[in-house]
Automatic annotation (TrEMBL):
This is DsrE family protein. The lineage of its organism: Bacteria, Bacillati, Bacillota, Bacilli, Lactobacillales. Signal peptide: none annotated. InterPro entries: DsrEFH-like, Sulphur_relay_DsrE/F-like. It comes from Candidatus Enterococcus moelleringii. Pfam families: DsrE.
Length: 105
């Protein structure tokens, strides 16, 4: 199973974390990508999100470069596990084209 979670609202990041944990409990072999753009990009700096990423290293984490620029976040501000993509929307299109199911908490 391949699933992409899309979060663009900071308040939805916590819900996405819970959804991802639930999915991993149901299917330990699920391939999961979390794509964050918009105001939610700030969430990659929060302690709760950093801890979650350490707890769930099998999840791929993507950050929209456009959102990073808009919120003045540098790649060096993020954990190494986070892949910076040029545009979150294009990343979502590519992943869905590759067969990922789209979930927006």
């Amino acid at each position: 199973m391949k699933v992409v979670f899309h979060v663009d609202e900071l308040t939805k990041l916590s819900e996405a974390r819970h959804n991802i944990k639930n999915l991993l409990t149901a299917d330990k072999n699920a391939t999961i990508v979390l794509v964050v753009n918009g105001e939610a990009i700030q969430g990659y700096l929060l302690p709760a999100q950093v801890e979650f990423m350490k707890e769930c290293p099998k999840v791929s984490y993507h950050a929209c470069n456009n959102a990073m620029n808009a919120y003045h976040i540098a790649k060096d501000d993020l954990l190494e596990a986070i892949e910076v993509v040029p545009a979150g929307v294009m990343d979502l299109v590519r992943l869905q084209h590759e067969g990922y199911a789209y979930i927006k908490p």
